[in-house]
């Protein structure tokens, strides 16, 4: 395979990376908060530990999956929408 036939490097990897770092972290925090709010039947110590330790696997899963988006703009749009949905659900759960 010659160097001229190799596919070009996509230039939006930086946008995807930043979206995965920033929006992935806030999405993981939001998912942790929704879990902590909805898991009322558990002891407080167990619920807090689960909520705390579930942030990193969720964040890393989002961060590794962000490169499947076609563009950085789509990554920002989808993760921003997911953040709005999760934090809206958290606000609704606390309000109701």
Automatic annotation (TrEMBL):
Q: Does the keyword Membrane apply?
A: yes
What UniProt keywords apply to this chain's record, in alphabetical order?
Membrane, Transmembrane, Transmembrane helix
| UniProt keyword annotation of Membrane present | yes
From which domain of life does this come?
Bacteria
Q: What is this protein called?
A: Uncharacterized protein
Mark the transmembrane ranges.
Answer: 20-38, 50-69, 75-93
